Amino acid sequence: xxxxxxxxxxxxxxxxxxxxxxxxxxxxxxxxxxxxxxxxxxxxxxxxxxxxxxxxxxxxxxxxxxxxxxxxxxxxxxxxxxxxxxxxxxxxxxxxxxxxxxxxxxxxxxxxxxxxxxxxxxxxxxxxxxxxxxxxxxxxxxxxxxxxxxxxxxxxxxxxxxxxxxxxxxxxxxxxxxxxxxxxxxxxxxxxxxxxxxxxxxxxxxxxxxxxxxxxxxxx
Length: 220
What we know:
single chain, alpha/beta, Rossmann fold, 7-stranded mixed sheet, 4-stranded antiparallel sheet, 11 strands, globular
């Protein structure tokens, strides 16, 4: 059989993947971190040794918060993705939430962009622009405004501390349209210095999903 994609995965393998995972390929990610794509529970998953980066509609951190914010989330037309993974966020918004949006995806790792386009993005109807750039700096130099910003930046099981500065949250706020939403995903076990988000977004609240907190903040 040729290369596996969303159209060529045998039905029996999808069913069996609910019992065992099928590794498809492994790449070297940022800082030489091994990242593996597998078929697991009938979905494409991207993971490192200690963290799941993407998992189609089973990427529960964002799936759960999107459901929580429905129907408000369905009105978002311009979406900024900081961290791409395999593209679970646009997959969820299009396939599960019925959102008709245009996505700007900022991803520092060209190998992850390659995997996202290979396994997910080419199968979506949504317009998506994948930009190889550092999510730490992009909010400071872009002049674009967005209705929704989804922050999902990890190096294995941690988010670099530079992303928690007051200056960074202020830059994210500048990127938001009035009443725009920021969804900022962090791993609770990291115990990150999240207090700075409250100095910029006093209305920010955490939404708990499994081992993560997705902070919900509105530009009002």
